Amino acid sequence: MTKVGLHQYPPMEQVIFGKPAGLALREEAERKGAQRVFLIASRTLNTTTDEIDKIRSALGERYAGTFDQVPQHTTRDSVVEAAGHAAQAKADLVVAIGGGSVVDAAKIVLMCLEHSITDASGLDGFELVSTPQGPRPGPFRNPKVRMIAIPSTLSGGEYNAGTLVTDTRRKLKQIFVHPLMMPISIILDPAITVHTPRTLWLGSGTRAMDHGIEAVCSPRGNPLVESVCLRGLRYLYDGLLAYADNADSLEARQMCQLGSWLSAFGLQCRVPMGASHAIGHVLGGTCDVPHYLCTAVMMPSVLKYNKPATGAAQKLLAEAWHEPEADASELFARFIARLGLPTRLADVGVTEDRFGLIGNNAMLSVFTPANPRPIKGPDDVVEILRLAA
């Protein structure tokens, strides 16, 4: 029986690796003719290291300003504030330098600039919503200002056109998406990651693996996505273990960066994610679990729940992780333990009395209907949570 499918290439121009971040960014600004480059940076990188100073110096007269007040989980208030500073600076290129929250902020800042959004409620109605006909994006216009990402962690959100922003009024993390929120370029410099805390690096690496795992297991994947993601998952498996043995190794760090890039290939080509993403977003937005720890505590249980529908795909995962005869769920759980990351929901402060709320909120996610094993209601989400308790 022949297969039927579709592959969509992302609206991103290039990934640059092996060059110092400042040099690569200056060359990109020159290539795009940008005269007012506005940085949205990690506060830690900006105030405790010289990495942002080096980038400002490399940009020279093209540098227009810096905002470094993005909190974890990227709140609406912070992105509206960042957009105000970018507008005042007359930014014609936005650059995210930092982890996933900073990258998410830069993406939605493009849309705040385009639509002149100046308060948090201005984003109402633009969020991605789940409908019986499938996900429905908000009515964003094409942004005139684009962005470049220089990631300092491995979560991989820079490789897709969506962003996660928390509505603090409801403690709900929402998705906003537009094809041109995808960075035009991504710059991978392992040297800028040496300041990233160990647990954040390892945890964000497992979050990057989430992208690859859910793409390989998705019924809407294709041979190209499967092949690229499996290679990325091996890079991450080997690279994270090598980093755990020697955090000073730039080679191990670059291996992890390449793995994050390849593992995100399905996500950037619009292969839908599943239950791990749906639940992880709720754990962050509703229960304040750091985003980079969600995969560590949830993925073994999601794999276990999905095994009846994804047995063949899980064999490919085990093969990528060098143990083709192993159970993928158990293998991933052992891997998490070897990295020294939390392995259960209780380890990150989520107790069973929250499971009902998590289940209800997860049903609002556009990823829940895309899970390879159907999730019919909150009780099915609670079943997965109990596996991870």
From TrEMBL:
Pfam families: ADH_Fe_C, Fe-ADH. It comes from the Bacteria. InterPro entries: ADH_Fe/GldA, ADH_Fe_C, Alcohol_dehydrogenase_Fe. Residues 204-387 form the Fe-containing alcohol dehydrogenase-like C-terminal domain. SUPFAM superfamilies: Dehydroquinate synthase-like. The keyword Oxidoreductase applies. Transmembrane segments: none annotated. Residues 14-190 form the Alcohol dehydrogenase iron-type/glycerol dehydrogenase GldA domain. The keyword Nuclease does not apply. Signal peptide: none annotated. Keywords: Oxidoreductase. Belongs to the iron-containing alcohol dehydrogenase family. This is Iron-containing alcohol dehydrogenase. It comes from Bradyrhizobium denitrificans. The lineage of its organism: Bacteria, Pseudomonadati, Pseudomonadota, Alphaproteobacteria, Hyphomicrobiales.
